Amino acid sequence: MAFHHEGTKDTKTRSTATTKNVVGSVLDALRSASRLRALRAFVVNTAAILNMDAAAIPNLPQSDGPPPPWHRLLAPLPDDAVPSRKPVAPPEVLAQPHGSAIAGWESVTLELSAGLAGMRHLLVVLDETGRPISAADHVYFREASTADPAAAATIRQESIGGRLEPDGRFLGTCWLVTGLEQPEDEPPRWEMTPRPPTEAETAGLKILVAELVRRLP
């Protein structure tokens, strides 16, 4: 699903540019070596929402201890969590003729690490007026076998993401992605199940969007 509004050719141009650059923002984050392994898990869900191919996902080691309370889909954010913001495209893209379609748009992100057991990534896109036009919440879990430490760990990803319309509607999808952890030299083998979000899930995402925007520095 691309982020777009129905209508004019200019709108379609905005849709194409936004799709590429929202995913580009996620891929930029992946280039951080210290977070590479954890962040690539979320590309699968983001790419699925945007109908784009995802990169292979490396393995993550196991973590002990109970998960933090925010390490679940649509859970309240930690009190001290502060999101970051940046343009959805770099200056060289915005300087191009087609860049005017997304001029002033910003991506708001929050990355929460649950240690070696997984993480959570929230993304909101704001248009030039500051209105949220798309949002997503992704949670990544990894559970190793306690019976056989040599066995492949179970990977589970839960997400909700899509468009926020001016009339208040949310046009999005929930994804459940599961599979066994593969060696780094083998492609991932995911079972991906989409479904429409419930009214409660839509309301929960909107609450998170408002909270992220409120916390912007």
Write the layout of secondary structure elements.
Blueprint: H1 9-30, H2 36-49, E1 84-87, H3 91-94, E2 106-113, E3 118-126, E4 132-143, E5 154-164, E6 170-180, E7 191-195, H4 199-214
Antiparallel strand pairs: 1-2, 2-3, 3-4, 4-5, 5-6, 6-7
Give the integer mean of the pLDDT values: 78
Distance between the termini: 30 Å
Strand order of the largest sheet: 1-2-3-4-5-6-7
How many beta-strand runs? 7
N-to-C SSE string, H for helix and E for strand: HHEHEEEEEEH
Oligomer type: single chain
Structural class: alpha+beta
Instruction: Note poorly predicted spans.
Output: 1-9, 15-45, 47-62
Number of helices: 4
Q: Report the C-alpha radius of gyration, rounded.
A: 17 Å
Q: Which percent bin holds the helix content?
A: 25-40%
Describe this structure in words.
This protein is α+β, with helices and mostly antiparallel strands and 217 residues long. It has one domain. Helices cover 26% and strands 28% of the residues. The protein has 4 helices and 7 strands; from the N terminus they run H-H-E-H-E-E-E-E-E-E-H. The chain has helices at 9-30, 36-49, 91-94, 199-214, and strands spanning 84-87, 106-113, 118-126, 132-143, 154-164, 170-180, 191-195. A 7-stranded antiparallel beta sheet has the order 1-2-3-4-5-6-7, with helices on both faces. Helix 1 packs antiparallel against helix 2.
